[in-house]
Amino acid sequence: YVPTFQDVELEVDYVQNAVAVGDQVYLFGSKWNQETGEGKDIMYCYQPITGELKEFPIEMKSEAGINVSIQKMAVNSAGNIIMMVNKYQMPEMTNTEDVLSGPQEYKEWVELWEVSATDAAVLNVVDLQKALEIEGGFWTQYMALDAQDNVYFCDGNSMIYVLDAKGNKLFSKQIDTWINGMFAGNDGKVYIKADGEGGMTVRPVDLQAKNIGEPVSSEGFGDSYNQRYYVANDGTMLVNDESKVFSYDFTTGVKTDLFAWLDADVNSEFVQEMGQLSDGRYWAFLREYGEKEEHSFVVLKKTPAAEVVVKEELVFATMWLDQRVRKNIIDFNV
């Protein structure tokens, strides 16, 4: 797999969320202004095939005094972006009496938005306080959609909520173990990754039983703390297993090794999101940490060995690879 790197200039300090709609990748990030003491949220749309980057014109502040932040994003079957949106309103303290009177009322609530990936129009808004019959806001740890566009999400206390495509509550389920991930499978179901007997396990959320199903039994799948999961364009799952990537099919249980990040001159510690383009190539969004965070994309193309430039090979022996060693190896290779 031969890499092509694409630097992107994002006017944000860090990127919190990224989702793909077809061949376009949507990035949501934030920037803090040290001088004014104010933050700014920006959303971008990037096209890895053409290298085009443009700002996605979604309105982050619906009205004066209300702060808006996107917690999580996913994509429904219509190609629209489903956003878990946190809103909060700080109390206005205009004079000394306001300050001396003590704590003012702080308002926080959460909404579920359906947003057009074409023009950023907000197509539908669900008030989750009403839908879930709860008060105040909450933090969404993970979110995913099944094939029927039902919305699954969990909070930091391992409580799973399931809504239908219109935002009506179907059920909620408290899990007695820590949830480490939630994702859509290529079979149309939603799965969670959670602590189980002997370590990490991947288990389906059973919509009919309103419960969690039995662990998926497959060697090397779901047993790693850092595994990340994505549905590929070929209908299988892409699994980023820290140093390597493999595909997995929930319908057949077949696991196929694809490539190692280091062989493709990519530092796996910088990979934040990945996916597959319509032409079969793989893309990854890279977030390099440092004094100034740097962002880039890499596109990987499977290439016959005869067409790959032969490089000088050196043998390097080590007990383990840290971020610095990986970076030095990659810098040497490229």
Strand order of the largest sheet: 1-24-23-22
Number of strands: 24
Please report the number of helical segments: 3
Broad structural category? mainly beta
Helix content: under 10%
Order of helices and strands: EEEEEEEHEEHEEEEEEEEEEEEEEEH
Q: Measured on Cα atoms, how large is the radius of gyration?
A: 22 Å
Question: How much beta, percentage-wise?
Answer: over 45%
Walk me through this protein's architecture.
The chain is mostly beta strands. 6% of the residues lie in helices and 47% in strands. It has 3 helices and 24 strands. It has helices at residues 96-100, 128-132, 323-333, and strands at 2-7, 14-21, 24-33, 38-47, 52-55, 66-75, 81-89, 107-115, 122-127, 140-145, 151-155, 159-163, 169-174, 179-184, 190-196, 199-206, 211-212, 228-231, 237-241, 244-248, 255-260, 271-276, 282-288, 294-301. The strands form 6 sheets. Strands 1-24-23-22 form a 4-stranded antiparallel sheet, with no helix packed on it. A hairpin with a 6-residue loop joins strand 20 and strand 21.
